[in-house]
Amino acid sequence: MRNNFRRRNGEPTLYIKQYKEMFLTIVLYVDDLIFMGSDETLVEEFKEEMKEEFEMTDLGLLKYFLGIEVQ
Fold first, then answer.
1. So what's the pLDDT on residue 1?
2. What is the pTM of this model?
3. 47 - beta bridge partners?
4. Alpha helix locations (H) across the chain?
5. What is the C-alpha separation between 60 and 14, in angstroms, rounded?
6. Distance separating the N- and C-terminal Cα atoms of the chain
7. Phi/psi of residue 6, nearest 5 degrees
8. Measured in whole angstroms, how far is the alpha carbon of residue 59 from the centre of its chain?
9. What is each CA distance from 8 to 11, 13, 25, 43, 55, in whole angstroms?
């Protein structure tokens, strides 16, 4: 898998990248990309890579997803 992400068995929209003790988790849903990680630098680097490759709007912290409030 590109960039060392691994798709999780049983959930084709969930990808995880592990680097030493850090991780980055990505969920794809139609045209949305939701991601979180254990290290802010890792998250920011991923966000910048995506902005270079794709037209992307950063909506900030997730508040709602599929009608469910997220805290």
1. 45
2. 0.76
3. none
4. 40-53
5. 20
6. 31
7. -120, 130
8. 13
9. 6, 8, 10, 19, 26
Q: Which residue pairs from 9-15 have beta carbons closer than 8 angstroms and sit at least 24 positions apart in sequence?
A: none
User: The sheet that has 6-8: what strands, in order across it?
Assistant: 6-8, 11-19, 22-29, 32-37
Each residue of 15-61: pLDDT tens digit? 999 988 999 999 998 888 899 999 999 899 889 888 888 898 888 88
Tokens of 15: 């990808």
CA distances from 12 to 5, 40, 47, 52, 60 (A): 12, 25, 21, 25, 24
Tokens 């969930």 found at: 14
